[in-house]
User: Which sequence fits this backbone?
């Protein structure tokens, strides 16, 4: 081949243009991906932020597209995601995280502060600091980032792919689901025909260990997972569309251990369990289930003997599964009960259960209660175990079976040898233990630890008076720490004291042991008032009572009176001078009398946050802000001053 | 004092200004490498922030150093092969001046966050226009020289140079979407197809074709051996023109563009094995019996190194374009490692060899210090080995951690730090080598060491033969 100038120029041009036509112009002419929901026009500020983003070269470390192989980054990017982008900044290196769906993952202020000092917010980051940029520019970049990705990200997490988009719930069988406008009968018939019963069985067998029987994502397995399981009682689940539910249940959730259930559940089974979760947890309303009578198959009498061993086994089951909603004293005030409709029953109203025999309990425990979140425990527990639970409820709560004689003090709890020499670990924290005592223990043992908590008073065996700890000789402390850990972990036989080992991690139990022993054995005496005039933390100084008062909430000392009587007077006494009934014989002694010159804000601050390293609780977890103001008002007026004056 | 029409002055001006740019470009690179290990190294200095400096580094080495020097090499080689002085020395000098001025503006602009931020096409629209003008002036100058040539036969080097000066302006215009100022981009995902068609062919149809011409010129000259095969040259030339043009989409194998286009790009990428093999064997067989000359000739040492690096980077690139491998390497530091093998070890080596060959001939003198040039080679080779290993280890760790272990990006970063530090160590050696190179070149021009064996140095002037 003779290479002349013409051959080189025209030949070279022909080859070049032919390939360009095929590999550049043809695809560009043919490829018109439709706009997706991810794409959006930029506001002037977002566009300015985008320009700052790319002209400062952020796209040289942060990509903006997700591949099939990428793990936990969101849905694979589509061409239509970029409809409004010019120039394209897909990126070619991923030195930092992909930003396709970063919008709404972080707050605006986080984005801005992180741009200034990356390693303050992300210690392993190697991102440069952009502290040299003016605040307005950083804000513009923040505006851009905040809008990146699915615009509904906050509510929807991520969108289902095309194959799931638009899937909707199939018909629910013969009956339609009852709603506020359509109050269909709420008995077993409609519960079964609508598929909810089957949904419940699937939920109990597949979902409950992580999502919990209260549907709040705090099932037993949850604590071991890096990603907390979904809490169905909050958004996005309360308003999540059917297609989204169906996608997540079918394919699992990227970046979590949620399994792809399409592998083992049929399409109709998946929809049934989705309906169950939606009805019971995500969008509930008040129902009045009509249960009917115990069916023939469950008309049984307990085959178990009334023994301590059976009752104790039942207690363990109660602590593990029932306490979350029903509460440790079975008054229906369990820690996870919020949002459950209808509310769990109150077993302390014994009149309601006078004519219940074994079968009434056994049936409900086994099959659940229609149109409620009560699980069908036949799925996970044997008949014997369910009868042990029946026995525990009947001897301790409804008290329709006479319990056996209580064991002797030393035999009332398990005290394994290895626990004899256990000591409170250095990591245990008194103040954390105190707050836990207020939430988990005080309703039976009382805030003063004197055993007078209102929930425990109906029980056959009254809650222990923890002040008696003080009578123990200090020489016993070599074993008393392990002894209290054992009592807490395994419960007290013949009483309703739960086996907390089934419910609380050991570290939390140690916090509690530390609180109980230090408060009642050694004592945390506060005999002089902690108050100095003007000593209110900055965040409380400007606390304005006005923001808590509105048309529906007014601060009223009279409304604070019953609260004061329940939570304060056991120690501070009805007149605020200390020496309340709960302080009698307590190692912590009596609190100081209220000084007359306490500011309103100071009282509010102490009631809400407590006094560190003393028995004074922070009531923030159990009282609303308005209630705390009410108590504050009552307390202030006890000192003889006018509240707000 | 300035003589704009002195013979070979345009060539020398391009090359000497490029040597200055080289110092700037590699210093930028070294700072970037340090920033990977110590992210707060230049904290608070806006123009040293990674994102801006990276763009400035890429454009400095790509256009100011490599492209400037390459055009300088051509302006010397084309007259030798055509038997004619360059068509217009004045035009050549105006080109050199315009090139440097527009890049000063462009690169300072990038450091001040004025960027189109499309990879390799970052320069702003006004600078794009100036670059286009220089490219076209350069085309006129070279084509007119070829048109008026005395030697009737066109040697392989001239095929490549004639083709390159034609392809690149087209490529630059299309790839920079120059009909759509000021962003120089299309709206929507198709912009990436233009971006990477351009991005890859800056290497494929500019540095590769432009520098193979230099390899084809210098190796036969320095070894005094005719090129082994005209046929292999033909395969390589047309093969590169056909296969290289269509590889761009292999940068987008996981992006939302048409699947068939990705397949075309993979096929074209692997097809590159054909012209690369042809070129490899052509040079290998020309070198038969001449390997001993590497001990004598400094230019040959660098050009052969560049040739070997070209073979390596081409095979690496073809394999990297296969989907299964790309899945692991994409987004990782393996890819900039590949780019540095191409632009630092292949392109820069060939250009340094070319400058060591041409500068003494233009100024009728010896290289200032051959010993220093050889010492520099040790820094170049050892430095690059450490540097490249750093990139590879970083990239492989990233790819396997992300894809095989499913780890999030940030968790992998601390484990990459030693490899990134290795890159800094290699980078220090490399920069030292480049400083030695620049010192040697400027000392050669300033000292003009007397030629002791005139036979070794070729006549620098082209004998003007009346073509009519």
Assistant:
């Amino acid at each position: 081949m003779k290479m002349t100038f013409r051959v080189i120029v025209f030949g070279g041009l022909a080859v070049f243009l032919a390939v360009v036509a095929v590999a550049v112009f043809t695809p560009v002419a043919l490829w018109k991906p439709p706009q997706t929901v991810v794409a959006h026009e930029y506001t002037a500020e977002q566009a300015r932020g985008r320009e700052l983003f790319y002209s400062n070269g952020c796209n040289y470390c942060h990509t903006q597209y997700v591949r099939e192989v990428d793990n936990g980054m969101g849905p694979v990017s589509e061409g239509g995601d970029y409809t409004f982008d010019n120039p394209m900044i897909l990126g070619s290196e991923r030195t930092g995280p992909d930003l396709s769906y970063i919008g709404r993952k972080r707050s605006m202020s986080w984005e801005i502060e992180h741009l200034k000092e990356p390693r303050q917010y992300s210690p392993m980051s190697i991102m440069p600091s952009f502290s040299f940029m003016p605040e307005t520019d950083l804000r513009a970049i923040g505006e851009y980032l905040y809008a990146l990705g699915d615009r509904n990200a906050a509510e929807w997490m991520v969108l289902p792919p095309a194959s799931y988009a638009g899937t909707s719930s199939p018909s629910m069988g013969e009956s339609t689901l009852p709603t506020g406008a359509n109050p269909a009968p709420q008995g077993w018939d409609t519960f079964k025909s609508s598929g909810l019963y089957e949904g419940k069985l699937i939920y109990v067998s597949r979902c409950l260990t992580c999502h919990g029987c209260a549907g709040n994502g705090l099932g037993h397995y949850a604590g071991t997972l890096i990603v907390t399981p979904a809490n169905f009682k909050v958004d996005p689940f309360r308003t999540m569309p059917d297609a989204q539910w169906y996608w997540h249940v079918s394919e699992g959730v990227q970046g979590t251990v949620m399994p792809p259930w399409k592998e083992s559940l049929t399409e109709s089974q998946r929809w049934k369990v989705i309906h169950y979760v939606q009805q019971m947890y995500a969008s509930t309303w008040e129902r009045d289930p009509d249960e009917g009578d115990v069916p023939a198959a469950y008309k049984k009498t307990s085959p178990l003997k009334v023994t301590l061993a059976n009752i104790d086994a039942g207690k363990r089951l109660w602590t593990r599964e029932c306490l979350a909603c029903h509460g440790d004293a079975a008054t229906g005030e369990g820690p996870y009960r919020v949002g459950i409709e209808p509310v769990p029953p109150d077993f302390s109203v014994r009149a309601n259960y006078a004519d219940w025999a074994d079968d009434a309990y056994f049936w409900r425990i086994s099959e659940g209660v229609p149109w409620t979140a009560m699980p069908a425990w036949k799925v996970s527990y044997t008949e014997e175990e369910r009868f042990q639970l029946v026995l525990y409820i009947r001897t301790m709560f409804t008290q329709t079976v006479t319990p056996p004689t209580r064991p002797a003090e030393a035999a009332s709890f398990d005290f394994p040898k290895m626990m004899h020499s256990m000591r409170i670990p250095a990591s245990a924290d008194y103040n954390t233990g105190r707050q836990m005592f207020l939430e988990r223990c005080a309703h039976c043992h009382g805030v003063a630890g004197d055993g007078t908590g209102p929930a425990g008073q109906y029980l056959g065996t009254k809650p222990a008076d923890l002040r008696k700890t003080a009578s123990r000789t200090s020489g016993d402390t070599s074993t008393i720490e392990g002894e209290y850990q054992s009592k807490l972990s395994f419960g007290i036989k013949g009483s309703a004291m739960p086996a907390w080992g089934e419910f609380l991690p050991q570290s939390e139990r140690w916090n509690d042991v530390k609180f109980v022993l230090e408060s009642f054995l050694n004592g945390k005496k506060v005999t002089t008032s902690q108050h100095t005039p003007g000593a209110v933390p900055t965040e409380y100084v400007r606390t304005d009572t006005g923001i808590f008062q509105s048309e529906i909430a007014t601060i009223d000392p009279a409304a604070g009176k019953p609260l004061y009587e329940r939570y304060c007077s056991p120690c501070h006494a009805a007149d605020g001078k200390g020496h309340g009934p709960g302080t009698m014989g307590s190692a912590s002694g009596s609190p100081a009398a209220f000084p007359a010159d306490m500011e309103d804000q100071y009282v509010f601050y102490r009631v809400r946050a407590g006094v560190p390293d003393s028995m004074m609780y922070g009531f923030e977890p159990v009282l609303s802000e308005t209630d705390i103001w009410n108590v504050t008002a009552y307390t202030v007026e006890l000192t003889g001053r006018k509240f707000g004056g | 004092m300035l003589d704009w029409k002195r013979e070979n002055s345009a060539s020398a001006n391009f090359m000497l200004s490029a040597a200055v740019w080289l110092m700037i470009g590699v210093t930028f690179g070294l700072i970037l490498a340090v920033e990977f290990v110590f992210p707060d190294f230049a904290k608070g200095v806006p123009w040293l922030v990674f994102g801006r400096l990276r763009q400035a580094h890429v454009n400095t080495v790509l256009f100011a150093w490599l492209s400037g020097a390459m055009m300088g090499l051509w302006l010397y080689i084309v007259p030798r092969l055509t038997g004619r002085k360059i068509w217009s020395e004045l035009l050549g000098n105006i080109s050199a001046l315009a090139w440097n001025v527009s890049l000063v503006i462009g690169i300072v602009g990038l450091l001040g966050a004025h960027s189109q931020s499309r990879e390799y096409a970052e320069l702003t629209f006004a600078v794009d226009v100036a670059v286009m003008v220089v490219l076209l002036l350069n085309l006129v100058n070279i084509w007119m020289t070829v048109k008026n040539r005395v030697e009737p036969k066109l040697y392989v080097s001239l095929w490549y140079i004639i083709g390159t000066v034609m392809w690149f302006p087209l490529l630059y215009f299309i790839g920079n979407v120059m009909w759509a100022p000021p962003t120089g981009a299309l709206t929507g995902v198709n912009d990436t197809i233009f971006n990477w068609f351009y991005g890859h062919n800056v290497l494929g149809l500019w540095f590769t074709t432009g520098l193979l011409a230099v390899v084809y010129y210098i190796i036969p000259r320095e070894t005094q051996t005719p090129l082994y095969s005209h046929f292999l040259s033909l395969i390589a030339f047309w093969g590169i023109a056909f296969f290289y043009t269509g590889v761009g989409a292999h940068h987008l194998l996981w992006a939302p563009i048409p699947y068939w286009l990705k397949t075309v790009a993979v096929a074209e990428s692997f097809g590159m094995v054909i012209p690369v093999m042809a070129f490899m064997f052509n040079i290998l067989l020309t070198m038969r019996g001449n390997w001993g000359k590497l001990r004598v000739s400094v230019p040959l040492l660098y050009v052969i190194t560049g040739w070997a690096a070209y073979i390596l980077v081409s095979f690496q690139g073809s394999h990297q374009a296969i989907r299964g491998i790309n899945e692991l390497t994409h987004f990782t530091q393996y890819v900039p490692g590949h780019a540095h093998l191409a632009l630092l070890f292949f392109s820069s080596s060939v250009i340094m060899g070319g400058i060591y060959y041409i500068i003494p001939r233009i100024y009728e003198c010896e290289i200032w210090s051959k010993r220093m040039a050889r010492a520099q080679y040790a820094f170049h080779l050892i430095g690059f080995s450490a540097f490249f290993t750093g990139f590879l280890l970083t990239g492989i760790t990233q790819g396997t951690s992300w894809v095989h272990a499913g780890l999030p990006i940030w968790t992998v970063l601390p484990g990459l730090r030693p490899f990134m530090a290795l890159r800094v160590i290699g980078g220090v050696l490399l920069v030292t080598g480049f400083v030695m190179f620049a010192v040697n070149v400027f000392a050669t021009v300033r000292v003009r060491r007397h030629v002791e064996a005139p036979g070794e140095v070729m006549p620098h002037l082209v004998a003007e033969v009346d073509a009519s």
In short: Chain B is about 70% helix and 0% strand.
